[in-house]
Write a structure and sequence with these properties.
Helix content: under 10%
Number of domains: 2
Strand content: 35-45%
Shape: elongated
Largest sheet: 16 strands, parallel
Length: 497
Protein backbone atom coordinates (compact mmCIF):
# COMPACT_ATOMS: atom_id res chain seq x y z
CA UNK A 1 0.00 0.00 0.00
CA UNK A 2 2.82 2.39 0.86
CA UNK A 3 4.55 1.71 -2.45
CA UNK A 4 1.25 2.38 -4.26
CA UNK A 5 0.76 5.75 -2.52
CA UNK A 6 4.35 6.69 -3.18
CA UNK A 7 3.88 5.91 -6.84
CA UNK A 8 0.69 7.96 -6.99
CA UNK A 9 2.44 10.92 -5.31
CA UNK A 10 5.34 10.78 -7.73
CA UNK A 11 2.96 10.61 -10.67
CA UNK A 12 0.97 13.58 -9.34
CA UNK A 13 4.13 15.64 -8.95
CA UNK A 14 5.18 14.81 -12.49
CA UNK A 15 1.79 15.77 -13.85
CA UNK A 16 1.90 19.04 -11.86
CA UNK A 17 5.33 19.96 -13.20
CA UNK A 18 4.26 19.20 -16.78
CA UNK A 19 1.15 21.33 -16.24
CA UNK A 20 3.17 24.23 -14.83
CA UNK A 21 5.64 24.15 -17.72
CA UNK A 22 2.93 23.86 -20.34
CA UNK A 23 1.05 26.81 -18.78
CA UNK A 24 4.04 29.19 -18.73
CA UNK A 25 3.18 32.21 -20.87
CA UNK A 26 5.58 32.40 -23.79
CA UNK A 27 3.05 34.24 -25.93
CA UNK A 28 3.93 37.91 -25.76
CA UNK A 29 1.84 40.68 -27.20
CA UNK A 30 2.66 41.48 -30.80
CA UNK A 31 2.11 44.92 -32.18
CA UNK A 32 2.90 48.51 -31.31
CA UNK A 33 3.20 49.42 -27.64
CA UNK A 34 3.75 52.86 -26.18
CA UNK A 35 5.63 52.34 -22.94
CA UNK A 36 5.14 54.77 -20.11
CA UNK A 37 8.24 56.06 -18.30
CA UNK A 38 8.53 57.58 -14.84
CA UNK A 39 11.03 60.06 -16.32
CA UNK A 40 11.76 61.07 -19.87
CA UNK A 41 15.20 62.44 -18.91
CA UNK A 42 17.68 61.30 -16.26
CA UNK A 43 19.93 64.19 -15.22
CA UNK A 44 23.14 63.77 -13.27
CA UNK A 45 24.52 67.04 -11.93
CA UNK A 46 28.24 67.59 -11.45
CA UNK A 47 30.00 64.22 -11.37
CA UNK A 48 33.61 63.93 -10.30
CA UNK A 49 36.06 62.03 -12.44
CA UNK A 50 36.40 58.37 -11.42
CA UNK A 51 34.01 58.97 -8.56
CA UNK A 52 30.85 58.17 -10.50
CA UNK A 53 27.60 59.51 -9.17
CA UNK A 54 24.49 58.72 -7.27
CA UNK A 55 22.45 56.11 -9.06
CA UNK A 56 19.41 57.33 -10.98
CA UNK A 57 16.54 55.13 -11.99
CA UNK A 58 13.67 55.10 -14.43
CA UNK A 59 10.60 52.93 -14.22
CA UNK A 60 9.20 51.40 -17.44
CA UNK A 61 5.48 50.58 -17.32
CA UNK A 62 3.64 48.00 -19.45
CA UNK A 63 0.22 49.59 -20.13
CA UNK A 64 -1.25 46.33 -21.49
CA UNK A 65 -2.84 43.37 -19.76
CA UNK A 66 -0.63 41.01 -21.81
CA UNK A 67 3.04 40.43 -21.17
CA UNK A 68 5.50 42.09 -23.53
CA UNK A 69 9.08 41.26 -24.37
CA UNK A 70 11.69 43.97 -24.86
CA UNK A 71 14.18 42.61 -27.35
CA UNK A 72 17.02 44.82 -26.18
CA UNK A 73 17.96 47.83 -24.06
CA UNK A 74 21.22 49.60 -24.73
CA UNK A 75 23.06 52.89 -24.73
CA UNK A 76 22.92 54.67 -28.07
CA UNK A 77 26.62 55.49 -27.87
CA UNK A 78 28.80 52.40 -28.11
CA UNK A 79 31.48 54.07 -25.95
CA UNK A 80 28.98 55.46 -23.47
CA UNK A 81 30.03 56.78 -20.06
CA UNK A 82 26.70 55.46 -18.78
CA UNK A 83 25.84 51.94 -17.74
CA UNK A 84 22.61 50.34 -16.55
CA UNK A 85 21.55 47.67 -14.15
CA UNK A 86 18.46 45.54 -14.88
CA UNK A 87 17.48 42.58 -12.71
CA UNK A 88 20.90 42.63 -11.07
CA UNK A 89 22.85 42.67 -14.34
CA UNK A 90 25.19 45.65 -14.75
CA UNK A 91 25.82 46.17 -18.45
CA UNK A 92 25.51 48.52 -21.41
CA UNK A 93 23.35 46.11 -23.41
CA UNK A 94 20.72 43.65 -22.22
CA UNK A 95 18.33 41.46 -24.23
CA UNK A 96 14.98 39.68 -23.75
CA UNK A 97 13.53 41.63 -20.85
CA UNK A 98 9.99 40.62 -19.93
CA UNK A 99 7.41 42.96 -18.41
CA UNK A 100 4.24 41.13 -17.26
CA UNK A 101 0.90 42.64 -18.09
CA UNK A 102 0.08 45.73 -16.05
CA UNK A 103 3.48 45.56 -14.38
CA UNK A 104 6.75 47.53 -14.57
CA UNK A 105 10.51 47.20 -14.22
CA UNK A 106 13.24 49.42 -12.78
CA UNK A 107 16.26 50.38 -14.83
CA UNK A 108 19.13 51.82 -12.74
CA UNK A 109 21.67 54.04 -14.50
CA UNK A 110 25.14 55.18 -13.37
CA UNK A 111 27.82 57.30 -15.01
CA UNK A 112 31.60 57.54 -14.67
CA UNK A 113 33.65 60.33 -16.23
CA UNK A 114 36.84 59.81 -18.21
CA UNK A 115 39.72 61.04 -15.98
CA UNK A 116 41.82 61.97 -19.01
CA UNK A 117 39.50 64.63 -20.35
CA UNK A 118 41.46 67.90 -20.77
CA UNK A 119 40.89 70.75 -18.36
CA UNK A 120 39.52 72.84 -21.23
CA UNK A 121 36.59 70.42 -21.41
CA UNK A 122 35.83 70.57 -17.70
CA UNK A 123 33.07 71.05 -16.82
CA UNK A 124 31.64 69.26 -19.80
CA UNK A 125 28.25 67.88 -20.74
CA UNK A 126 27.83 64.20 -21.47
CA UNK A 127 24.69 63.11 -23.26
CA UNK A 128 23.38 59.75 -24.35
CA UNK A 129 20.11 57.86 -24.81
CA UNK A 130 18.88 54.69 -23.20
CA UNK A 131 17.28 52.91 -26.18
CA UNK A 132 14.40 50.48 -25.59
CA UNK A 133 14.00 48.34 -28.72
CA UNK A 134 10.93 46.23 -29.36
CA UNK A 135 10.12 44.83 -32.80
CA UNK A 136 12.22 47.54 -34.43
CA UNK A 137 10.32 50.31 -32.64
CA UNK A 138 12.77 52.32 -30.53
CA UNK A 139 11.78 54.46 -27.58
CA UNK A 140 14.36 56.42 -25.62
CA UNK A 141 15.11 57.93 -22.24
CA UNK A 142 17.53 60.85 -22.43
CA UNK A 143 20.64 60.80 -20.22
CA UNK A 144 22.54 63.94 -19.29
CA UNK A 145 25.51 64.51 -16.97
CA UNK A 146 27.80 67.40 -16.14
CA UNK A 147 31.27 66.10 -15.40
CA UNK A 148 34.64 67.50 -14.52
CA UNK A 149 38.10 66.37 -13.57
CA UNK A 150 39.20 66.65 -9.96
CA UNK A 151 42.25 66.50 -7.69
CA UNK A 152 41.89 63.76 -5.06
CA UNK A 153 43.49 64.52 -1.70
CA UNK A 154 45.31 62.40 -0.68
CA UNK A 155 43.59 59.97 -3.08
CA UNK A 156 40.12 58.60 -3.67
CA UNK A 157 40.79 55.47 -1.62
CA UNK A 158 41.47 57.28 1.69
CA UNK A 159 37.97 57.44 3.14
CA UNK A 160 38.06 56.59 6.84
CA UNK A 161 41.77 57.38 7.23
CA UNK A 162 43.80 60.26 8.68
CA UNK A 163 46.41 61.86 6.44
CA UNK A 164 49.37 63.94 7.69
CA UNK A 165 51.21 63.90 4.38
CA UNK A 166 50.05 67.19 2.83
CA UNK A 167 52.96 69.24 4.24
CA UNK A 168 55.81 66.87 3.39
CA UNK A 169 57.16 69.26 0.74
CA UNK A 170 56.53 72.52 2.57
CA UNK A 171 53.88 75.14 1.94
CA UNK A 172 51.07 74.18 -0.44
CA UNK A 173 49.15 76.24 -2.98
CA UNK A 174 45.84 75.00 -4.34
CA UNK A 175 45.21 76.97 -7.52
CA UNK A 176 44.05 74.33 -10.00
CA UNK A 177 40.79 75.22 -11.78
CA UNK A 178 39.72 71.62 -11.21
CA UNK A 179 38.09 71.01 -7.82
CA UNK A 180 39.89 69.37 -4.91
CA UNK A 181 38.13 66.36 -3.42
CA UNK A 182 39.26 65.47 0.11
CA UNK A 183 38.87 61.93 1.45
CA UNK A 184 39.10 61.05 5.12
CA UNK A 185 40.55 63.50 7.66
CA UNK A 186 43.16 65.82 6.18
CA UNK A 187 45.58 67.33 8.71
CA UNK A 188 47.52 70.48 7.81
CA UNK A 189 50.52 70.44 10.14
CA UNK A 190 53.93 71.99 9.55
CA UNK A 191 53.02 74.21 6.60
CA UNK A 192 50.56 76.75 5.25
CA UNK A 193 47.85 75.72 2.81
CA UNK A 194 46.83 78.63 0.58
CA UNK A 195 43.72 78.47 -1.56
CA UNK A 196 43.72 80.74 -4.61
CA UNK A 197 40.62 82.70 -5.69
CA UNK A 198 37.90 80.45 -7.06
CA UNK A 199 39.22 77.23 -5.51
CA UNK A 200 36.53 74.61 -4.92
CA UNK A 201 37.06 72.08 -2.14
CA UNK A 202 34.69 69.12 -1.79
CA UNK A 203 34.96 66.86 1.23
CA UNK A 204 33.72 63.28 1.13
CA UNK A 205 31.78 62.56 4.31
CA UNK A 206 30.22 59.50 5.89
CA UNK A 207 30.32 57.35 9.01
CA UNK A 208 33.43 55.34 9.89
CA UNK A 209 33.15 52.37 12.27
CA UNK A 210 36.54 52.27 13.92
CA UNK A 211 37.11 48.98 15.79
CA UNK A 212 39.09 50.74 18.53
CA UNK A 213 37.33 54.07 18.96
CA UNK A 214 33.85 53.32 17.68
CA UNK A 215 31.94 55.21 14.97
CA UNK A 216 32.84 58.76 13.99
CA UNK A 217 32.02 61.27 11.27
CA UNK A 218 34.42 61.21 8.36
CA UNK A 219 35.32 64.11 6.07
CA UNK A 220 37.21 66.81 7.93
CA UNK A 221 39.99 69.33 7.36
CA UNK A 222 41.98 69.99 10.54
CA UNK A 223 44.70 72.63 10.87
CA UNK A 224 47.29 71.66 13.49
CA UNK A 225 49.20 73.84 15.98
CA UNK A 226 52.06 74.33 13.48
CA UNK A 227 49.84 74.69 10.45
CA UNK A 228 47.83 77.49 8.86
CA UNK A 229 45.17 77.87 6.20
CA UNK A 230 44.69 80.94 4.04
CA UNK A 231 41.55 80.95 1.92
CA UNK A 232 42.03 83.93 -0.39
CA UNK A 233 38.81 84.31 -2.35
CA UNK A 234 37.62 87.48 -4.04
CA UNK A 235 34.24 89.02 -4.80
CA UNK A 236 34.30 87.52 -8.30
CA UNK A 237 35.97 84.23 -7.35
CA UNK A 238 34.79 82.90 -4.01
CA UNK A 239 36.50 79.91 -2.39
CA UNK A 240 33.95 77.20 -1.58
CA UNK A 241 34.09 74.32 0.92
CA UNK A 242 31.27 71.79 0.69
CA UNK A 243 30.46 68.08 0.33
CA UNK A 244 31.11 66.06 -2.81
CA UNK A 245 27.49 65.24 -3.61
CA UNK A 246 26.36 67.93 -6.02
CA UNK A 247 23.22 66.33 -7.44
CA UNK A 248 20.11 68.46 -6.99
CA UNK A 249 18.67 66.53 -4.00
CA UNK A 250 21.88 67.21 -2.06
CA UNK A 251 22.14 70.93 -2.80
CA UNK A 252 20.66 71.94 0.57
CA UNK A 253 21.27 68.85 2.69
CA UNK A 254 23.21 69.61 5.89
CA UNK A 255 25.71 67.36 7.63
CA UNK A 256 27.31 65.88 4.52
CA UNK A 257 30.84 66.29 5.94
CA UNK A 258 32.33 67.09 9.34
CA UNK A 259 33.61 70.62 8.72
CA UNK A 260 36.76 72.70 9.23
CA UNK A 261 38.67 72.63 12.50
CA UNK A 262 41.47 74.89 13.71
CA UNK A 263 43.20 72.85 16.40
CA UNK A 264 44.64 74.22 19.64
CA UNK A 265 47.13 77.06 19.14
CA UNK A 266 46.85 77.18 15.35
CA UNK A 267 47.72 80.71 14.23
CA UNK A 268 47.72 82.89 11.08
CA UNK A 269 44.49 81.48 9.67
CA UNK A 270 42.52 83.60 7.20
CA UNK A 271 39.23 83.12 5.36
CA UNK A 272 38.42 85.83 2.84
CA UNK A 273 35.45 85.69 0.46
CA UNK A 274 34.87 82.08 1.44
CA UNK A 275 31.74 79.92 1.60
CA UNK A 276 31.44 76.93 3.95
CA UNK A 277 28.24 74.92 3.60
CA UNK A 278 26.46 71.60 4.19
CA UNK A 279 28.79 70.52 7.02
CA UNK A 280 28.04 69.26 10.52
CA UNK A 281 29.93 72.20 12.09
CA UNK A 282 31.04 74.89 9.68
CA UNK A 283 34.16 76.12 11.52
CA UNK A 284 35.46 75.07 14.91
CA UNK A 285 38.22 77.18 16.48
CA UNK A 286 39.84 75.45 19.44
CA UNK A 287 41.66 76.81 22.48
CA UNK A 288 44.20 79.55 21.74
CA UNK A 289 43.70 79.17 17.99
CA UNK A 290 43.30 82.35 15.95
CA UNK A 291 41.40 83.18 12.76
CA UNK A 292 40.48 86.26 10.80
CA UNK A 293 37.42 86.19 8.53
CA UNK A 294 35.95 88.67 6.08
CA UNK A 295 33.23 88.43 3.43
CA UNK A 296 32.37 84.83 4.36
CA UNK A 297 29.20 82.75 4.35
CA UNK A 298 28.55 79.73 6.58
CA UNK A 299 25.22 77.99 6.21
CA UNK A 300 23.27 74.74 6.04
CA UNK A 301 25.12 73.12 8.93
CA UNK A 302 23.60 70.26 10.93
CA UNK A 303 24.89 71.85 14.12
CA UNK A 304 26.81 75.09 14.83
CA UNK A 305 27.86 77.58 12.20
CA UNK A 306 30.97 78.75 14.09
CA UNK A 307 32.25 77.43 17.42
CA UNK A 308 34.96 79.29 19.30
CA UNK A 309 36.41 77.64 22.43
CA UNK A 310 38.81 79.97 24.29
CA UNK A 311 39.75 81.23 20.83
CA UNK A 312 40.51 84.48 19.04
CA UNK A 313 38.10 85.23 16.18
CA UNK A 314 37.63 88.41 14.20
CA UNK A 315 34.94 88.44 11.52
CA UNK A 316 33.51 91.13 9.29
CA UNK A 317 30.93 91.24 6.50
CA UNK A 318 30.03 87.64 7.26
CA UNK A 319 26.68 85.84 6.95
CA UNK A 320 25.73 82.81 9.07
CA UNK A 321 22.32 81.21 8.55
CA UNK A 322 20.29 77.97 8.27
CA UNK A 323 22.07 76.09 11.03
CA UNK A 324 20.74 73.16 13.02
CA UNK A 325 22.30 74.53 16.19
CA UNK A 326 23.47 77.93 17.44
CA UNK A 327 24.77 80.01 14.56
CA UNK A 328 27.63 81.57 16.53
CA UNK A 329 28.76 79.80 19.71
CA UNK A 330 31.67 81.32 21.65
CA UNK A 331 32.37 79.49 24.89
CA UNK A 332 35.07 79.22 27.58
CA UNK A 333 35.94 82.86 27.07
CA UNK A 334 38.31 84.11 24.42
CA UNK A 335 38.63 87.26 22.35
CA UNK A 336 36.01 87.98 19.71
CA UNK A 337 35.47 90.92 17.39
CA UNK A 338 32.51 91.07 14.98
CA UNK A 339 31.79 93.88 12.53
CA UNK A 340 28.97 94.04 9.97
CA UNK A 341 27.95 90.42 10.54
CA UNK A 342 24.48 88.89 10.12
CA UNK A 343 23.60 85.78 12.10
CA UNK A 344 20.09 84.51 11.29
CA UNK A 345 18.45 81.61 13.13
CA UNK A 346 15.04 80.87 11.66
CA UNK A 347 13.16 77.60 11.67
CA UNK A 348 14.85 76.05 14.71
CA UNK A 349 14.67 76.52 18.47
CA UNK A 350 18.28 77.64 18.89
CA UNK A 351 19.52 81.18 19.32
CA UNK A 352 21.54 83.05 16.73
CA UNK A 353 24.49 83.75 19.07
CA UNK A 354 25.67 82.55 22.47
CA UNK A 355 28.63 83.92 24.43
CA UNK A 356 30.01 82.31 27.63
CA UNK A 357 33.04 82.72 29.85
CA UNK A 358 33.08 79.13 31.08
CA UNK A 359 33.10 75.52 29.87
CA UNK A 360 31.18 72.61 31.38
CA UNK A 361 32.87 69.26 31.83
CA UNK A 362 31.31 66.01 32.89
CA UNK A 363 27.88 64.58 32.21
CA UNK A 364 25.99 67.06 34.37
CA UNK A 365 28.52 69.90 34.38
CA UNK A 366 30.22 68.55 37.51
CA UNK A 367 33.37 70.46 36.62
CA UNK A 368 33.49 74.03 35.32
CA UNK A 369 36.49 75.73 33.75
CA UNK A 370 36.47 79.52 33.51
CA UNK A 371 38.29 81.94 31.25
CA UNK A 372 37.91 85.70 30.59
CA UNK A 373 35.66 86.77 27.71
CA UNK A 374 36.41 89.90 25.69
CA UNK A 375 33.69 90.62 23.12
CA UNK A 376 33.25 93.54 20.74
CA UNK A 377 30.27 93.77 18.36
CA UNK A 378 29.63 96.63 15.91
CA UNK A 379 26.97 96.99 13.21
CA UNK A 380 25.75 93.39 13.44
CA UNK A 381 22.37 91.64 13.25
CA UNK A 382 21.39 88.74 15.55
CA UNK A 383 17.90 87.77 14.40
CA UNK A 384 15.66 84.72 14.26
CA UNK A 385 12.27 83.24 14.98
CA UNK A 386 12.71 82.98 18.77
CA UNK A 387 12.16 85.74 21.32
CA UNK A 388 15.73 85.25 22.56
CA UNK A 389 18.35 85.30 19.79
CA UNK A 390 21.26 86.64 21.83
CA UNK A 391 22.41 84.76 24.94
CA UNK A 392 25.03 86.22 27.29
CA UNK A 393 26.00 83.65 29.92
CA UNK A 394 28.31 84.94 32.66
CA UNK A 395 29.41 82.32 35.19
CA UNK A 396 29.72 85.11 37.76
CA UNK A 397 26.00 84.65 38.36
CA UNK A 398 26.91 81.28 39.90
CA UNK A 399 29.61 82.71 42.14
CA UNK A 400 32.64 81.88 39.95
CA UNK A 401 34.33 85.18 39.25
CA UNK A 402 35.98 85.69 35.85
CA UNK A 403 35.79 88.71 33.51
CA UNK A 404 32.90 89.01 31.06
CA UNK A 405 33.77 92.12 29.06
CA UNK A 406 31.46 93.12 26.22
CA UNK A 407 30.74 96.13 24.08
CA UNK A 408 27.87 96.30 21.58
CA UNK A 409 27.32 99.26 19.28
CA UNK A 410 24.73 99.87 16.56
CA UNK A 411 23.54 96.27 16.52
CA UNK A 412 20.11 94.66 16.10
CA UNK A 413 19.32 91.97 18.67
CA UNK A 414 16.33 90.00 19.91
CA UNK A 415 16.39 89.74 23.71
CA UNK A 416 13.69 89.16 26.28
CA UNK A 417 14.55 87.16 29.40
CA UNK A 418 18.11 88.50 29.21
CA UNK A 419 16.77 91.83 30.44
CA UNK A 420 15.30 90.13 33.51
CA UNK A 421 18.66 88.73 34.60
CA UNK A 422 20.60 90.45 37.38
CA UNK A 423 23.81 90.82 35.37
CA UNK A 424 22.29 92.05 32.09
CA UNK A 425 19.17 93.98 33.06
CA UNK A 426 20.79 97.15 31.71
CA UNK A 427 22.00 95.51 28.49
CA UNK A 428 20.01 97.79 26.17
CA UNK A 429 21.40 100.80 28.01
CA UNK A 430 24.95 99.49 27.66
CA UNK A 431 24.31 98.53 24.03
CA UNK A 432 24.94 101.83 22.23
CA UNK A 433 22.36 102.74 19.56
CA UNK A 434 21.08 99.17 19.42
CA UNK A 435 17.68 97.88 18.28
CA UNK A 436 15.71 95.23 20.15
CA UNK A 437 13.80 93.77 17.22
CA UNK A 438 10.13 93.03 17.82
CA UNK A 439 8.40 91.02 15.10
CA UNK A 440 4.99 91.96 16.52
CA UNK A 441 5.39 95.46 15.11
CA UNK A 442 5.73 94.02 11.58
CA UNK A 443 8.88 96.03 10.97
CA UNK A 444 10.68 94.83 7.85
CA UNK A 445 14.20 93.46 8.07
CA UNK A 446 15.22 91.02 5.31
CA UNK A 447 14.06 90.47 1.73
CA UNK A 448 12.85 86.90 2.33
CA UNK A 449 13.71 84.59 5.22
CA UNK A 450 11.85 81.71 3.53
CA UNK A 451 14.16 81.98 0.53
CA UNK A 452 17.28 82.67 2.62
CA UNK A 453 17.61 86.14 1.13
CA UNK A 454 19.16 88.16 3.92
CA UNK A 455 19.68 91.33 1.93
CA UNK A 456 17.91 94.29 3.51
CA UNK A 457 14.30 94.86 2.49
CA UNK A 458 12.99 98.28 1.52
CA UNK A 459 12.50 100.35 4.68
CA UNK A 460 14.40 97.78 6.76
CA UNK A 461 14.76 98.95 10.35
CA UNK A 462 18.55 98.67 10.17
CA UNK A 463 19.04 100.95 7.16
CA UNK A 464 21.31 103.91 7.92
CA UNK A 465 21.57 102.78 11.55
CA UNK A 466 25.18 101.64 11.43
CA UNK A 467 28.28 103.21 12.90
CA UNK A 468 30.77 104.69 10.43
CA UNK A 469 33.77 102.35 10.40
CA UNK A 470 35.49 103.47 7.20
CA UNK A 471 38.56 104.60 9.15
CA UNK A 472 38.92 100.99 10.31
CA UNK A 473 38.96 99.75 6.73
CA UNK A 474 35.35 98.61 6.38
CA UNK A 475 34.29 100.19 3.11
CA UNK A 476 32.20 97.50 1.36
CA UNK A 477 29.66 94.78 2.15
CA UNK A 478 29.59 91.00 1.73
CA UNK A 479 29.29 91.13 -2.05
CA UNK A 480 31.47 94.18 -2.65
CA UNK A 481 28.87 96.94 -2.66
CA UNK A 482 30.25 100.18 -1.19
CA UNK A 483 29.17 101.21 2.30
CA UNK A 484 27.63 104.60 2.85
CA UNK A 485 30.57 106.57 4.30
CA UNK A 486 28.38 108.49 6.75
CA UNK A 487 25.35 106.34 7.62
CA UNK A 488 26.01 102.70 6.70
CA UNK A 489 23.51 99.92 7.31
CA UNK A 490 23.77 97.21 9.95
CA UNK A 491 24.55 93.66 8.92
CA UNK A 492 26.58 92.06 6.15
CA UNK A 493 24.60 93.71 3.31
CA UNK A 494 24.35 97.38 2.43
CA UNK A 495 20.90 98.19 1.04
CA UNK A 496 20.83 98.73 -2.71
CA UNK A 497 18.19 100.82 -4.47
Amino acid sequence: MTKFLTGISAFAICVLLIFMVSCRNDNYFEGSVDFRFSEDTLRFDTVFTELGSATRWVKIFNPLSDAILIESMSMANENSFFRMNVNGNSTKVITDVEIPGGDSIYVFVEVTIDPDMPVSDSPFIIEDNLVINREGDNQVVHLEAFGQNANYIPDRFSAGSVSFDLCQSGDILWDDPKPYVVYGILVIEGCTLTLAPGTRVHVHGGIVNDPDNGPYNDGNITVGPNGSIKSMGTVQDTVVFQGDRLEEPFADISGQWSGLRLFNESKNNTFSHTTIKNAIIGLRVDSLAEVSMDHCQIYNTASFGIVGIHATISASNTLIHSNGGVGLQCTYGGTYDFDYCTVASYGNDMEAANFRNYLCRGFNCEFIDVNPLNLTVDNCIFAGSQSEELVLDDISAQGLETPFNYKFRNTLVRVDSLLESELFSDFLTQCENCINYNTATNDTLFVSVDDNLYQLDTFSVVEERGLNLTTEGFTDDLIGNPRDPLTPDMGCYEFQQ
